[in-house]
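USER: My hope is that you can spare some time for a protein that puzzles me. I am handing you a single protein, as its sequence and its fold in C-alpha cell form. Walk me, if you will, through where the backbone shape changes along the chain. The protein I mean follows directly.
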Amino acid sequence: MTKLLTSMWAACITSLLLVILYLSNPTLIQKVRLSTFDYYQTFGTNYESKSLVLLDISDAALKKQGQWPWKRDIVGRTIVNAYRNGAALVFLNVVFVHKDRLGGDETFLKMIGKYPVILTETKDAKNLISIKRKALAVGNVEVPIDIDGTIRKLPLKNSVPEVILKVIQFKNKAKDNIWIDFRHTIPRIDYTDKDWSSMKGKIVFIGTTFKGSTFVLTPNGLKNTHEIMAISTETLLSKKFITRPKWTPYVEFSLLFATLILTIIFIPRLGVWTSILPFSIYAILVALSSTILWSRYMILTDWLIPSAIVFIVFAHLIYNNFHRENRLKLQIKKQFEHYLAPAMVKKLQQNPSLLKLGGERKVLTFLFSDIRGFTPISEKYKGQPERLTRYVNRFLTAMTDIILKNGGTIDKYMGDCIMAFWNAPLDNPNHKRLAVKSAIEMVRKLKIMNRNHEFKPPVNIGIGINTGECLVGNMGSKQRFDYSVIGDAVNTASRLESISKNYDATIIISENTCKGTDYIPNSRDKGFRFYKLDNVKVKGKTEKITIFSIQNL
C-alpha cells in the first residue's frame, strides 16, 4: 500500500482529483474563495464618506418616541428635520405597505410632498400607491446573499444607489452588479442627538438600528440595510470599483494546471531539500502578483485554493522523494549486501544510477487477444463513452479471470487488447498447455456471454499464441519500470492474432507452441485437436512459419 501511495501515479491521481474538486466548485471551495476575497478588504485605505451620513433610529429613539412603527407624522417630521439641518437629499429605509393605524398618513403625505424623499421597496413588499406617488423616487434594497450567508454584491438595476445617482445627476460608470467596497465608512448620527448639523449638504440615509432590526452579514461584520445602501452609494461615488474580471478564473486555472504539470515533472527529479526552492518561488510569485493586482487595479484573485492544491501535490511529491530515496537505499542494501563488499554497496546507495535496468533470457508462451471489428462497435457507442467503457471492461474482466486462473501474467491492456504470458515470473513447465487451455476457455466463455446477451453487439475475438525466447524482467525508464517482456517471439504472437481474421479460425497457434502440446490430433481423449492452417509469412519475418488452430471449440 505504501508503494502504491508513494508512486508517481498516486501523485498524478491526487492532482487529478484535486483539479476535479476545484472544477466542481463545491460549497466548501466557494466559501473559502469568498473568504479570501473578504480578506482583501482588510488591506488598503479606509475611506470616510464626505457626501453621506447615516441617521439611526436606535433603542434610545424608541425610548423617546415609543415603540416601532411610529406614527407616520413622526417619521415625516424626521425627514423635515433632516432637511432643516441642511440635508441635500433624504433616503428612508421604510416600506409603507399598510395604512397608518394611528392615522398619520395625511400629514405624512403633505410632508413628503413638500420635502422630497426616496423610499424603498422589495418584490414582496410594495408601498401604498398614495405614498409611492408622493415620493421623489423608489429604489430596490434587495441584495443577493452569497452561499455563506454574506452580502458582497449589489445588483445596480433599480437599486437605491442607482436611483440616488440619477436624482443627483451623477454619471455612473458601473454596469450590472458591483462589489461593495466595505472599506468605506459612513458617519453616523443618532436620532436622539441634539446636533444634526453634520448632515448639512449630505445625502441622509435613515434606517433602524434598534434591537430586532434587520441586520445582515457583510465582510465587515453585521450591518443594517440603510448602511449597506449608503456604502454601496459611496462605492459608486468613488468611481473606484472592486472587480473580478471574467478572465480571472481561466487564468487561475491555467496557471494552476501548468504549475501542477511542472511540479509533477520536475519535483521527482530533485532532491528532498532542493525541491523546496521551486515551491518557495511559486509562493512568492503568487503573493506578489495578487498584491499588485489588488493594490493597483482592485482585482480580486483566488490565490488561496490554487496554492493549497499545489502545496498538497508538492507535499505528496516531496514525501515520495523522501520515501523513494530511503526505500532505494534499503533495497540496494538488501539485494546486494551478500554479493558485494560493504564499500561497493555504500557506493551504490550513494549513486543508484550505477544500477542498470534489465532482465533474463527465458522461453515463455505469449497470448494476444483482441476484439474483432472493434471500430464499428466504437462507432455504435459514439457519444456514449461510458457505455463503451463498461462494454470493454466486461470483456477484459472475464478474459483476465481465465488467464489468471490458469497461472498467466497479464502484461498489459491496450484498449480492447490483452497481452499475457506464461512461465514468468514463476517457472511453469506446462506454460504451452496452459496458454492454449486459456484460449479455449476464453472462446467458450465468450460464447456463453454472447448467448446470454451480455454484449450488444456480440463480441468476436481473435487470439494469437506463440512460444519462444525473450528478455523478461523489470523494463522501463529510470523513473519507472515494470515487469514485462521483449523479443521477436512476442512480436510473432501479436502478428498471429492480427492474421486470425484472415482464416476461419478464432485461435492461431504457432508450431513452436504446438510442439510438445498434444501435437498429434486425437492423441489422447483430453488432448487438443490441432489442425494445420497454413504456412505464412508474417509481418517482420523473412521466413514462413506453420500455423495451427483447434477443432471443436
